[in-house]
């Protein structure tokens, strides 16, 4: 299952995300999304892990404080296609 993690601190790393979510199951991947131009964090990321662990993690982590920010955690939704201009 792919999990969306929002409201991340600007200093959060991929390793921080993996460490946080690995308490609930095996993490396949953890990525903080960065701005292409600046390389700075965009304040959200995605974690991929097994379904059972993901459900537990969403319940446990959503709304909790992590590095001074209250996280928004839910199951990732497919990206909507946007028209190109």
Which properties best describe this structure?
single chain, 85 residues, alpha+beta, Alpha-Beta Plaits, four-stranded antiparallel β-sheet, two-stranded antiparallel sheet, 2 helices, 6 strands, globular
Number of domains: 1
CATH homologous superfamily grouping: RRM (RNA recognition motif) domain
Helix content class? 10-25%
**Low-confidence regions:** none
| Helix-strand category | alpha+beta
- Count of runs of 4 or more consecutive helical residues: 2
Shape: globular
Number of strands: 6
CATH architecture: 2-Layer Sandwich
Radius of gyration: 13 Å
Distance between the termini: 32 Å
> Average pLDDT value?
94
Q: What fraction strand? A: 35-45%
Strand adjacency order, main sheet? 2-3-1-6
CATH topology tier name: Alpha-Beta Plaits
* Element order: H for helix, E for strand: EHEEHEEE
* Main sheet summary: 4 strands, antiparallel
CATH class: Alpha Beta
Give the arrangement of secondary structure elements.
Layout: E1 2-6, H1 14-21, E2 27-34, E3 41-49, H2 51-61, E4 65-66, E5 69-70, E6 72-75
Descriptive overview:
The chain is α+β, with helices and mostly antiparallel strands and 85 residues long. The chain has one domain (2-75): Alpha-Beta Plaits, CATH 3.30.70. It is built from two helices and six strands; from the N terminus they run βαββαβββ. It has helices spanning 14-21, 51-61, and strands spanning 2-6, 27-34, 41-49, 65-66, 69-70, 72-75. The strands form two sheets. Strands 2-3-1-6 form a four-stranded antiparallel beta sheet, covered by helices on one side. The protein is globular and about 40 Å long. 20% of the residues are buried.
